[in-house]
Xaa-Pro peptidase family protein (Solirubrobacter ginsenosidimutans), 414 residues
Amino acid sequence: MAIEERVAASLGTRVDVGTMGVDWEERIDFGRLRRERLEKAQVALRESAADFLFVFRTEDARYLTGYRHHLGPTPLLGNATVVLRPDDDPILYTMDYEHCRLRMPWLSDECLRPRANFREDVGIRKWADSVEEVTGSLAGKTVGIDLWSVTLEEGLRQAFPDTEFVDGYKVLMEAKIIKTDDEVMCLKVANAITEAGMDAARKALKPGVRECEVLAAAWYTMTAMGSEWTQCSNIVASGPYTAPYRRFTSDRVIRMGDPVIIDIGGCFNGYWGDLTRTWICGDIKPTQAQKELHQKCYDAVWNACAASIAGNTTADVFAAADPYVLDSLGHGSGMAPWEPPYFSPHTRDDPQELRPGMQFNLEPYAGEPGIGGFRLENNLVVTEGAPDVYTTYPFEERFVIDVHPFDSSTGRTR
């Protein structure tokens, strides 16, 4: 059975699992995870116009080989480079060559090479020679590139003068857009870690604490649970910074009655959680105007979730939340925090059909200066039937006027 067919058949039957390996139930099979990711990528490559892919993004080197590198705030060309071949194992060039030889036995000696040096022209030429040792001449071939700089582009065109270069990122995104069983389980674990971070942040939220102290509580909890990194620098925005929305955390002292947007994401095995809730600080009732704005955002996120069914399009999902959207309603997630499908206003002109196995995060917004801003977010997987909304953390009940019929976690303590 093809991977996509098996994903469709099993969706809706998955359960939340622990993170340890056990003998008494089926959990994440990391060997299968690596094999199926590589298989999907090679199928996408064979169906594309490219003969090979040169992959420079760190997260996609991990997707293709299982190589884990530290997650920095900027891409570092050459730290992890993969040559993807359509029918053979990928070739990994890594700065951690000895470490990988010892701990990644699924890659043969031929497939592990020392780091590619793209900082100097001579390094690019030497790497090109190394590539052709295993691929053969690339003259007359088409190679997809996912990321490059001006220097790298010049070097590659000089090293491969008779090779056509095309956008290889689209090839990998086609492979990554349908998640396997193991990928979904990784995403759910990442979400559980993120929800624990949200709970810690909510408990730390009280009048007189700073935004950065609230974030520190979330970050500590997620890291203690095994989160490899966080989705971004993470956001705690309070009071006037919720409308217009300021997307970073500062040292502002949070005051009684402030609305507080918390947007965080933990990382499990390279896969990302992403969760946003808006709280009110202190033992105080929100204003009616705040409740009405929050309700608009709350209804928007659940209406968008309800529209996330196979056969609908990204435009249908966007329309279900419109007009309570900032520049984007949401995005997919996987080994990068932001992957297709996307939900921007442009989906009206170029809608994408939803298929079982697609995963994405929906995060509408409603705000008005002087009242406050409200952002909320759920994560889900498209199935053959109703969407699998696997975000279970409740919303701020003091803001909710009417509980949405799809929301099974909010309102239970009223």
About this structure: Residues 3-176 form a domain with the Creatine Amidinohydrolase; Chain A, domain 1 fold (CATH 3.40.350.10). Residues 6-14 have pLDDT under 50 and may be disordered.
